[in-house]
Amino acid sequence: MTDGELKATWRGHYGDVQGTLAKMATVGRVVTAFNANIDAVIKVKGTRIAELVAATGLTRESLDSQMARVIRTPADLVRGLVRCFAGGFAEEWLIEDPAVYQWACDQVGCDRTQMGGQAGIVANAMAVCGVADVLVHCASLPADQSRLFLDLPNLRSTAADGGLAKARDIAREDPPMVHWILEFDGGDVLPLPGGDIRCPKSNRFIATYDPMNLGLHVDQAFARQVAALPCDAVILSGYHLLTETLPDGTRGADRVDASMDVIRAWRAGSPACLLHLEVASTQDRVVRRHVLEGPARQVDSIGMNERETIDLIELLDADDLAALCNREPRADHLFRAMHRVFDHTGCPRVQLHMYGLYVTIQRKGFRITPAANRRGMQTAAVVAAGKAGTGAIDTPAALLWALGKDVSDVGLGELKRLAALPELGGAGGADGTLLTTGIFEGADFDVIAVPTILVDRPVTLVGMGDTISSVSLVAAR
What we know:
It is a single chain. By secondary structure, the protein is of the alpha/beta class. It has 2 domains: about 5-35 and about 215-475, UDP-N-acetylmuramoyl-L-alanine:D-glutamate ligase (3-Layer(aba) Sandwich), CATH 3.40.1190.20; about 40-115 and about 175-210, 2-Layer Sandwich (Adenosine kinase, small domain), CATH 3.30.1110. The protein contains 21 helices and 18 strands. It has helices at about 5-15, 15-20, 45-55, 60-65, 75-85, 100-110, 120-130, 145, 210-215, 220-225, 250-270, 285-295, 295-300, 305-315, 320-325, 330-345, 370-390, 395-400, 410-420, 435, 465-475, and strands at about 30-35, 35-45, 90-95, 110-115, 135, 155-160, 165, 180-185, 190, 195-200, 205-210, 235, 275-280, 300-305, 350-355, 355-365, 440, 445-450. The chain has an 11-stranded mixed sheet with strand order 7-6-5-1-12-13-14-15-16-18-17, with helices on both faces.
């Protein structure tokens, strides 16, 4: 079959998307927890960075010194920004002192604010997709945070009195949790005494002031409200922000365990609800292992990207496979990695969202059929492309912006690699139908793979994985 014929076949499969999206209105209630924050985005030029260097009294020697990657003073924030600008790479440093937070508000500012945090991003996506009632957990919900939620009546959180209210209208007396995203352009020049620094690659430096989410603070009023209501799905994230030991001496693992006590209370009231864990990039190895051995074994579904998949199998004595996936992050190698996670955790559904292709492996007899999973994944692909192409999925038109566009050549190439695996019917295996149907039904597990629609010049890629995982699962119900 030629690539043109394959694209036509997949165009036919994608014909289900509009109807699948419409059926999301039949989903009664989705809960998203635990992290929502304010992303303060600003484009910084080299000349402006030079002004900040001078204002904070930094010398060339202090800029070059290898100090801790933490922000305790304004100079530390500028030092981190210069480091990332000079290297053309991305890093995230934490602001520990509230006085530095205030300095950043006054001296750094921002060009725009946008929703940050998996729970917040997913809540907006679920609400605009039409889910009847979306409940979003917010550790902090002042007016600056609430105005980043879509102005929709089906999107609710807890107000100051502990009752549920429209999230957009809430203004609790909480401190804002802000992640400054300082973007810079490749080729830009930072003029400094002793010689200019030229940025080799466009990237960003993130300075985060978020003590509540960094400690996985749980709003007990929200926890009580959800425990008393039936729900269809819980989308869970936020563990990636934890460290082995928190500033107050608390163990990050203990915060994970405390959150799972809350989740168990929610499931007691809704035994049939689907619980999905979005892994996210968890830098702390101790926390990552605790999540792998704890929540990942207790949920119904796991979502992860290429990097997060590799991070998990590094914990499973699979160094050779991890190294292979690092060198060649291809669908065939990554499938074997995600299969290791699937086997180790016993989680009945594991989904990988990689560039150009989404892959789900699920236990035989899982409550969502392979065909329904494919419909959900295709819907997620259209919604994600709409987000990338328009910058926001805040209207029904934006959701369907990419409908009718062909799947990408990159996606078809990765699907061919996957379909060639002997264990999935290729290379002399069973029937090789994965390439044309996106579905392989095995003896013990099923695999669903969907080539996606790629946008040449995306307006945004923020929150893409969270959107993909949540829409894939909820649209498939």
